[in-house]
Amino acid sequence: MRILFVGDVMGEPGQEMLEQYLPLVKHKYRPQVTIVNGENATHGRGINERVYKKILKSGADIITMGNHTWDNREIHDFIDDAKKLIRPANFSAHKVPGKGYAIININQIKLAVLNLQGRVFMNPSDDPFAVAEKIITELQEKTDVIFVDFHAETTSEKEAFAWYFAGKVSAVLGTHTHVQTNDARILPGGTAFLSDVGFTGPYNGILGMKRENVIERFLNQMPTRFEVDETGPQTFSACLVDVNDSNGQAKRIETLQINPDHPWMD
Amino acid sequence: MRILFVGDVMGEPGQEMLEQYLPLVKHKYRPQVTIVNGENATHGRGINERVYKKILKSGADIITMGNHTWDNREIHDFIDDAKKLIRPANFSAHKVPGKGYAIININQIKLAVLNLQGRVFMNPSDDPFAVAEKIITELQEKTDVIFVDFHAETTSEKEAFAWYFAGKVSAVLGTHTHVQTNDARILPGGTAFLSDVGFTGPYNGILGMKRENVIERFLNQMPTRFEVDETGPQTFSACLVDVNDSNGQAKRIETLQINPDHPWMD
Amino acid sequence: MRILFVGDVMGEPGQEMLEQYLPLVKHKYRPQVTIVNGENATHGRGINERVYKKILKSGADIITMGNHTWDNREIHDFIDDAKKLIRPANFSAHKVPGKGYAIININQIKLAVLNLQGRVFMNPSDDPFAVAEKIITELQEKTDVIFVDFHAETTSEKEAFAWYFAGKVSAVLGTHTHVQTNDARILPGGTAFLSDVGFTGPYNGILGMKRENVIERFLNQMPTRFEVDETGPQTFSACLVDVNDSNGQAKRIETLQINPDHPWMD
Amino acid sequence: MRILFVGDVMGEPGQEMLEQYLPLVKHKYRPQVTIVNGENATHGRGINERVYKKILKSGADIITMGNHTWDNREIHDFIDDAKKLIRPANFSAHKVPGKGYAIININQIKLAVLNLQGRVFMNPSDDPFAVAEKIITELQEKTDVIFVDFHAETTSEKEAFAWYFAGKVSAVLGTHTHVQTNDARILPGGTAFLSDVGFTGPYNGILGMKRENVIERFLNQMPTRFEVDETGPQTFSACLVDVNDSNGQAKRIETLQINPDHPWMD
Ligand SMILES: [Fe+2]
Ligand SMILES: [Fe+2]
Ligand SMILES: [Fe+2]
Ligand SMILES: [Fe+2]
Ligand SMILES: [Fe+2]
Ligand SMILES: [Fe+2]
Ligand SMILES: [Fe+2]
Ligand SMILES: [Fe+2]
User: Fold this and answer.
1) Which of C73, C151, C221 is the best substitution to test chain A (most A C-beta atoms within 10 A)?
2) From the CA of A174, how far away is ligand 2's center (Å)?
3) Residues of the domain holding B207
4) Is the CB of A225 inside 8 Å of chain C's CB atoms?
5) Which residues are named in the active-site annotation (chains A, B, C, D) (predicted)?
6) C263 assigned to some structural domain
7) Which of D127, B252, A265 is nearest to C220 (CA)?
8) Which of B205, B186, B176 is nearest to B251 (CA)?
9) C93 in contact with B at a CB cutoff of 8 Å?
10) With 90 as the cut, is the pLDDT of residue B125 above it?
11) Are residues B159 and A215 in contact, defined by beta-carbon separation less than 8 angstroms?
């Protein structure tokens, strides 16, 4: 099967990019399933039910999250019933709502999607290696096709994670830095890897936030309210992975960007 | 002029990649000047005089550094006389050897190369924005062509830095994460930008270090000695920037990788 | 002269402790000057003009700040005119309002009060050692009595700072951890030192915040709004330093606490 | 029973202080059991078998550790057989040697000693709250007297931990900062608490390390080798806790220091 993964959708601009380009990208590349990271979907911080439904309507099958999972309090209103939303599986086990993985059927094939968060330079969480090992072992009894969104800051943790699970999962695609990396490859054993898919939203902001605010904070270290940059051009960052359904091994990985420097071509 | 910038050269494998490919790359792309980040050149940690000279001999004109500058103590033996070596300019002013920028003449044109280090998730240093502003203002009286190696961890600090100095320097190219990003672009005012150039060294290690050691530390959080992975294939990561000599504005930026997934083609 | 220094005043409960006990403490110990850290004075985050004036009325001569300086936006309304308020002197020089030190006259003797912030495990700031060295050198031309509130997280940075400036200033008293340390001493050269003075506010909260909220965040790592604990008993944390006016050397340092475990005795 | 807890013993000077004062302290205060944190006992970094035995011979019954547990590689030679050594229980479960708690008999009463490490501003580890909850629940079936050495950096994590387990354990005493705090108290339910016991070793170093080296690093941010300060006076930092054997509730907590500012008095 072909999996399309879209990186962190950022606010209204990101939602609009999804609405506009997801149909075109699907029409051109024909993925069987579309996964979207939605941790920044509502005003750049978390996600509420309206936007959750909007992204599904735009064509997502599963929405993954990250360190911004709880930023929008409205998530508590719907996360228990949101079958298509997963958040990092290694969040604390102490009464934390939501779930860390989902299994969906794609033409008789089961696809497991697992979301995890790194620990280096991030808030404390349970050990992503240990938690993943446990869940992946369980999932392997149900399917060979396992897709991981590893939401992490450093390249070292992302590479270590991918190499450790190489041959055990179909893909480890990173998110969180909002910048697409140029290291897409198939690791031994058939695991597609990309350090970071990049994000989907304002192209001339800083990680999607208004430049002035972010720069001002770097200059004077005083608090400024970061807001999604609602003006200017947008970017769409994604990755396509082709998986051999019979054994779960990835055969091909390709990155995708749509923005003024990478204009869309049908 | 055309500038070639090669990302963090890692140990013997990285030195060998330079030796082998720098001549070929130069022959094919014809850069007028070659800048190499050498912070990991000697056994992955710092640089000594032998390797400094070897990299120059391989074809580098200027060597930049980063957070690993002082890791190899032999640097103190030659840094004061090393005209072609610069280290982050925003290191403390307190009796720190070395210099943060260099000016070289390329066919009658002065090229200033400036090295800086970020502060987010890195050891404390002087403010890179303030230090850069001061130095760039001085350099602008001497030349329009200013190249910056901004050695930093986070994409936010790199983007903020680049946008803040957009139109004031010819290029802001990032280093440190050892993973090439896919965001090369020309910012308004003619500033070439790339979050990270990537590194040059072992392709199947983790950031160039032996996988087993790094993975082990992630699994059990116990200290392991990281060593450069001396086996297996290598990668060469670089970036080419074309600058308009008359005004210092970048016209073109292109990334380059040589490794099993991106084989060299003459 | 005798200097009384009161640690981080926390919200309404802290203000009330000041109002109630500052007169009693002054009456008993007869300090010539009272310095109060007010970075948490308004609802635990920053300070506004009303509370600034209230603390002065309660008996403070100078108010120092820390990493929470800008948390309450109302500070911008009065900081430019607030002669008795100082904030860390090593905040960025880039258009940051306020000042980092103040000089006041105490019975014909000039007392300089300097506020600085550490860098380890704190937001980036200018180098506190370099900034302090510059300012202290200037201040020494005006007075021998220099008092430093060094607002920092780690004991190592606090001790290093104090030992480096030992013999150059009358006192280095730490703040920020909200827990009084038991290491008050006079360093060689006559510099009084205490890693942390502790805080003034709710005694049964966590650093003065409601326990339930803070514990909940440690248990599940989910965001909770921290609020000043407005119930239960209070604590008053302070330090007294006796300085020889003729040479600025500290002769004596003593900590002070008032709370259910250290009841006030006249 | 009366428990004596001695904070981080630092190198030769720390060992000597133990040898000299432990007998005197025991003679004066008559504790039934002595617990010593030994994470810095061998040259400031970890512990080897010779020093382990020496500290036991000086009078320790149990030795606890912290983030420096693995610094001295010789620990691997004896940790599996070291019945009186425990290391933080929340270290990764992945093939990590050693154990996190021990139970000893003191005059027919079982005393459980548990070692844990914090996560804020420290290397990643398993959740100390969750791990402690599980172990303490198990231990409570065997004894009411549970002593915890919580090795952590921040006062917030220490206070949150102590309040969360208040009434469930006899004592939560902190270590790691090497500076004794002045907040000893009995929390509701009979849990003795002290944020940090302080350390045992060189009194005029910085956290026990030679001042020059540590200060130099703060001044220029360049690597220096930290070494235990072997000259000058020493300090001995400890805490005494009286526990009601019948219900495990602490009745009294008192700190102890021996150094030039707190001379020993028989
Ligand atoms: Fe994101
Ligand atoms: Fe994120
Ligand atoms: Fe590097
Ligand atoms: Fe680096
Ligand atoms: Fe505070
Ligand atoms: Fe603070
Ligand atoms: Fe220690
Ligand atoms: Fe420690």
Assistant:
1) C221
2) 10
3) 2-258
4) no
5) 68 (proton donor)
6) no
7) D127
8) B186
9) yes
10) yes
11) no
Give chain B's largest Cα–Cα span.
56
CA proximity to C177, closest of C36, C67, C75, C55: C67
pLDDT digits (tens, 9 = 90+) for A237-262: 999 999 999 999 999 999 999 999 99
Helix (H) or strand (E) holding D241: strand D234-243
Residues 6+ apart with CB under 8 A from B20: none
Place of tokens 């057989």: D81
Identity at B65, one-letter amino acid code: M
What 3-state class would DSSP assign to C172? strand
Q: Is residue B263 part of a domain?
A: no
D149 is in an annotated binding site: no
The CA-based angle B180-B183-B186, given to 5 degrees, is 125
Sign of CA dihedral D220, D225, D227, D231: negative
Coil, strand, or helix at residue C121? coil
Look up the CATH number of the domain holding residue B86.
3.60.21.10
pLDDT, average across residues A24-37: 98
How many domains are contained in chain C?
Answer: 1
Q: Which residue type, as a one-letter code, is found at position B170?
A: S
CB contact under 8 A, C223 and A71: yes
Q: Is residue D266 part of a domain?
A: no
Catalytic residue among A43, A68, A76, A262: A68
The amino acid occupying position D176 is H
Top residue of D121, D127, D153, D154 to mutate, by most chain A CBs within 10 Å, is D127
- The complex scores an ipTM of 0.96
DSSP D104: E
Question: Could you tell me if C227 lies within 8 Å of chain A, comparing CB atoms?
Answer: no
pLDDT digits (tens, 9 = 90+) for D33-58: 999 999 999 999 999 999 999 999 99
Contacts of A90 in chain D (CB under 8 A): none
Residue-wise pLDDT tens digits, B40-52: 999 999 999 999 9
| Strand D101-106 relative to strand D62-64, pairing | unpaired
Is some CB atom of chain A closer than 8 A to the CB atom of C95? yes
Q: Where are the alpha helices (DSSP H) in chain A?
A: 11-29, 49-58, 75-78, 128-139, 155-164, 211-220
Segment C50-60, tens digit of pLDDT: 999 999 999 99
Which residue do the tokens 């060295």 mark?
Answer: C133
Which strand (E) or helix (H) includes residue C225? none
Q: What proportion of chain B, given as a percentage, has pLDDT over 70?
A: 100
Q: How far is the CA of C193 from the centre of ligand 8 (A)?
A: 22
Quick one: angle between helices A155-164 and A128-139, nearest 10? 30
Q: Which DSSP letter does residue B177 get? A: S
Predicted TM-score (pTM) of the model is: 0.97
**Pairing outcome for strands C185-187 and C191-194:** antiparallel
Closest approach of B240 to chain D, Cα-based (Å): 32
Q: How far apart are CA D97 and CA B124, in angstroms?
A: 34
pLDDT at residue number D214: 97
Q: CA Rg, chain D, in Å?
A: 17
CA of D255 to the centre of ligand 7 (A): 18
- Give residues with Cβ within 8 angstroms of D50, minimum separation 6: D42
Mean pLDDT of B221-233: 92
d(CA D228, CA A240): 55
**Is the CB of C221 inside 8 Å of chain A's CB atoms?**
yes
For residue B224 the two structure tokens come to 């392991």
In angstroms, what is the span from residue A244 Cα to ligand 1's centroid?
A: 29
Kindly indicate the confidence band of residue C74, based on its pLDDT and cuts at 50, 70 and 90.
very high
Tell me if residue D262 is catalytic: no
D253, β-bridge pairs: D241
